[in-house]
Amino acid sequence: MSVDVVCVGESMALVTPDPPRPLADGGPMRLDAAGAESTVASYLAQLGARAAWASAVGADPLGALLRTRIASYGVDVSGVVIDPDAPTGVYFKDPGAETTVYYYRAGSAASRLGPAVLDHLPATRILHTSGITPALSGSCAALVDAALGLDVVTSFDVNYRARLWPVAEAAPILAGLARRADVVFVGLDEAQTLWGVQTAADVRALLPEPTRVVVKDGAVGAWSDDVFVPAPTVDVVEPVGAGDAFAAGYLFGLLGDAAEADRLRLGHRIAGAALRVTGDVARLEDSC
């Protein structure tokens, strides 16, 4: 079996107030699945790509939820390890235009992943991962290091998370990993935080090695070298998941050998769908 894209990284059970309201108010909650890499895979599958997600979950109901929910988008989840000795991670979302999230992922099944998971991946055209994974544990850092050395097109979303590691530790590691990837996604704001750069051109100068460095600046737009595409106006429900949706749209364009500007436009379109919903993954037939 072969696929177009394998996405490697942790996903967690997501608990969100339903209907949306502050977490502190209590009341009914919705239980869902969410995670950077599985979100990318879920959008790619909806767009028509053959997408797989590789990770680990606990032998618990939350792990079963993750596998079932992510598979419902058309994603191949056969590469997900079920760990009987560690739980599935959980996080809570406090909704709003400036959403706050609270993670409970220490010691999770996915944090125990290592390079061995790569031995069981299907043949693929693209491997996608993110800077969240190396922050989880030493074995996860080794996994990403090994993944970026595979003989396929590699895609890396910097995805800096301040709650996982401090800037001083993360900045050199994430820059080093990004330099080894073929395609890099990074928000201008996180690049400024990590590396003290100011513009998309500065980011490219810092990362000359990748074939493409896509720099996103929220509602302004996105750059890829000298190509800039402004972001369309969107009425934002919440921003969580939009960056992963953008990456999925761009990678789908890459699979189809679309022009660079068209890849960025597709990234914006899928990100726009994500911005209009409270869940991490929008059903594209309902949103685009």
Automatic annotation (TrEMBL):
Gene3D superfamilies reported in the protein's UniProt record: 3.40.1190.20
InterPro entries: Carb_kinase_PfkB-like, PfkB_dom, Ribokinase-like
UniProt entry keywords in alphabetical sequence: Kinase, Transferase
Signal peptide positions (record): none
Domain of life of the native organism: Bacteria
Pfam families for the chain: PfkB
Domain Carbohydrate kinase PfkB, residue spans: 4-282
UniProt key word Metal-binding: no
UniProt similarity note: Belongs to the carbohydrate kinase PfkB family.
Full protein name: 2-dehydro-3-deoxygluconokinase
Organism: Cryptosporangium aurantiacum
Lineage: Bacteria, Bacillati, Actinomycetota, Actinomycetes, Cryptosporangiales
